[in-house]
Design a protein that fits this description.
The complex is a heterodimer of chains A (about 140) and B (about 500). Chain A is built from 5 helices and 8 strands, in the order ααββββββαββαα. Chain A is of the alpha+beta class and about 140 residues long. Chain A has one domain: Jelly Rolls (Sandwich), CATH 2.60.120. The relative contact order of chain B is 0.11. Chain B is globular. Chain B is α/β, with parallel strands linked by helices and about 500 residues long. The chains are: A alpha+beta (about 140), B alpha/beta (about 500).
């Protein structure tokens, strides 16, 4: 029970959780932890182990590779899933571009969470497919 | 200015005084101790002080085993707690803890203006000259004893304001802090909202008194012995869990609580399971909200101090400064608002005395050097002793044991100026802030096996992480560790090539 009371209403509007009912959203809110980063703070660090899966509640973040900003993330977006799914260190920094409020799930709990919520897993897969499509487009 | 006289405030005041930093301490309370003047309700601490350890109580290494004493700089002042415990438990009683804090404050001469109520806060442009450096603004604290003005204010006011989630009817029931004498629950059916330590503490105390106990909250119960961290219900309070596991009478539910309604002298509690949607309705004699606490920050959010999470913790930088209002700092259990790396989801021990006592010492040094022009000397190390020094810190340094992946021992490796012990610093600061070639060592845990050393080498501004293996006897000083750490540091420690 570590998140603020307004979190359930906030995440109800996120596409990742679009298929969950009220008690399921409340369960999610209790499973995740809430965290806050000041502007300029790093959330994920390239090459540093033990990170988690983050969902942005408020604010924006930059995806920074070798010191260069490549893209940005906003409320409802998530990050960190690639290193959690592969069990590897992040290949990019994520830096708070504004004060940033997030939900976070430890990397080791992502598999259990997704297999317990197949609809969320499917939505996450759609998100990964979109990222892959954009990367392919960018490369071609 | 420092507000609060719990362990966090006392430790910071002591550490500031030792560095010659003038400050005033205000406290709403009548005497030292903070929340330990009242709680835990069953009057015994959750954190231990182990009397016999094989290391002298007057040594720094003893702090690893004594989670409850504040930490002085002189050996003679160390280990206040074991000397005044009665020996019946390695968990001090609440009165022993209170006495320990009072004794530390008295012996070290900490001066507090007690009975002084902090009422409101405002920020004004800093004075043109004098005082501390680099603030930009001063703060005025209006108190029951008049106004105080300072360029730096540290709040160590705890997380002690009762919190109740917005469940219909829960506002009518007593909170953890309102627990009545245990006899008054005799033969009652008691419904406890919340499955953290406070809920299980009450359940443990009620086992011989209540007719039936129900503990409920949406999340599943975690046990510290399973998480291998201090996350989860501590072993002391696991008895109700065993009772439920063998169907002895205690009921533990993973449900949302939909409503609490008064009915006659008791209550009806309606719950709903998140997985199957099943609703239950229970008639009970008592409902207790063991639903946690929030930080009593008064008007600080209006001043721009960002807060987060259920406890409304102030968001902080690695040096425990407000992430949104420079000049406002925090000490004590509020330090949980500076989460650090939180590797593998494991929090620091900044919520507990054994963790935040070190944060306070680090904060005092940071304030002294960045705000008050004090330069603390750095001991020099010889290249040949550096590896042994770091391995000894990893094996015995209490800061690293109590604040894993959070506080680190930092050594600068400057080919020209030499090798210097920079002391203890927040690990996330070391990794993110950049600086000269250096190494930081920390102990880390991943929630599965034993803790293991982690080495962060900064070379040309880039930090790389290397994890060393765990050791079953938790000793990292042997030849194999010397070889591994030596190999990591070798490029940085070998002498510079001679100029051509």
């Amino acid at each position: 029970m570590a998140v603020r009371d307004d979190v359930v209403n906030t995440i109800a509007a996120f596409s990742l959780f679009a298929d969950l009912n009220g008690p399921q959203l409340e369960e999610v809110a209790h499973l995740f932890d809430e965290t806050f980063f000041g502007e300029g703070e790093r959330i994920l660090r390239q090459g540093v182990s033990g990170s988690g899966f983050y969902i942005i509640l408020e604010g924006t973040a930059a995806i920074r590779v070798n010191g260069v900003d490549r893209s940005s993330l906003k409320a409802g977006d998530y990050f960190g899933e690639i290193s959690c799914l592969l069990g590897e260190v992040p290949v990019a920094d994520i830096v708070a571009a504004t004060p940033l409020r997030c939900l976070v799930l430890p990397g080791g709990q992502l598999e259990g969470f997704l297999t317990a919520h197949p609809k969320v897993m499917y939505r996450l897969l759609q998100g990964e497919a979109r990222k892959l499509k954009n990367t392919t487009k960018w490369l071609s | 200015m420092l507000v609060g006289s719990g362990p966090g405030g006392l430790q910071l005041s002591y550490s500031l005084s030792r560095l010659g930093i003038d400050h005033a301490v205000l406290s709403d309370d009548a005497a030292p101790g903070g929340m330990f003047r009242r709680w835990p309700v069953f009057q015994r601490m959750l954190s231990w002080t182990k009397p016999f350890t094989g290391v002298p109580r007057t040594s720094r290494a003893y702090e690893r085993y004594d989670w409850n004493s504040l930490i002085p700089e002189e050996d003679a002042q160390r280990a206040v707690m074991p000397a005044l415990m009665d020996g019946t438990s390695y968990f001090p009683s609440r009165p022993e803890m209170q006495k320990g804090l009072e004794t530390f404050a008295e012996r070290t001469g900490i001066r507090v203006r007690y009975g002084c109520h902090w009422e409101s806060t405002k920020a004004i442009p800093a004075r043109a000259s004098g005082g501390a450096q680099g603030g930009g603004q001063d703060f005025i604290l209006t108190t029951s004893d008049g106004d105080y003005r300072a360029p730096v204010v540290v709040f160590a006011v705890g997380v002690a304001h009762p919190y109740r989630p917005p469940i219909p009817g829960l506002d009518q029931v007593p909170h953890y802090g309102d627990f009545r004498p245990v006899e008054s629950y005799k033969d009652h059916r008691v419904f406890i909202v919340g499955k953290q330590n406070s809920g299980f503490e009450i359940a443990t105390g009620l086992l011989p008194w209540a007719r039936q106990l129900v503990l409920a909250s949406p999340g599943a119960t975690k046990l510290s012995v399973n998480t291998r961290t201090l996350v989860g219900v501590r072993a002391r309070y696991v008895q109700p869990y065993e009772d439920a596991a063998v169907a002895g009478g205690v009921i533990i539910l993973d449900t949302t609580i939909e409503e609490v309604r008064r009915e006659g002298a008791g209550f009806i509690v309606r719950t709903r399971n998140a997985t199957d949607g099943r609703e239950l309705s229970m008639a009970v004699d008592d409902v207790i909200a063991a639903t946690g606490f929030v930080s009593p920050l008064r008007d600080l959010p209006a001043l721009g101090v960002a807060t987060f999470g259920q406890s409304h913790l102030p968001a902080q930088t690695p040096f425990w400064e407000s992430a949104t209002v420079p000049g406002i700092f925090f000490a004590g259990t509020l330090n949980q608002g500076s989460p650090g790396l939180k590797k593998h989801g494991i929090p620091s021990n900044s919520g507990a005395v054994q963790g935040y006592r070190y944060n306070a010492r680090v904060l005092a040094r940071h304030l002294a050097e960045t705000r008050f022009g004090v330069r603390i000397p750095r001991p020099q190390l010889q290249p040949a002793e550096t590896v042994r020094f770091l391995l000894n810190e990893l094996s015995h340094g209490p800061e690293l044991w109590h604040q894993r992946s959070y506080l680190a021992r930092v050594v600068h490796l400057d080919r020209d100026r030499g090798i210097s012990d920079e002391g203890i610093l927040p690990l996330s600061y070391f990794i993110d802030a950049g600086g000269p070639d250096a190494v930081a060592v920390a102990l880390e845990s991943n929630g599965q096996g034993d803790p293991y050393p982690a080495v962060y080498l900064r070379k040309n501004g880039v930090v790389s992480e290397r994890l060393l293996p765990a050791h079953p006897l938790l000793d990292f000083t042997d030849a194999e560790y010397q070889r591994q750490l030596g190999g990591i540091l070798d490029p940085a420690l070998s002498p510079s090539p001679s100029p051509a």
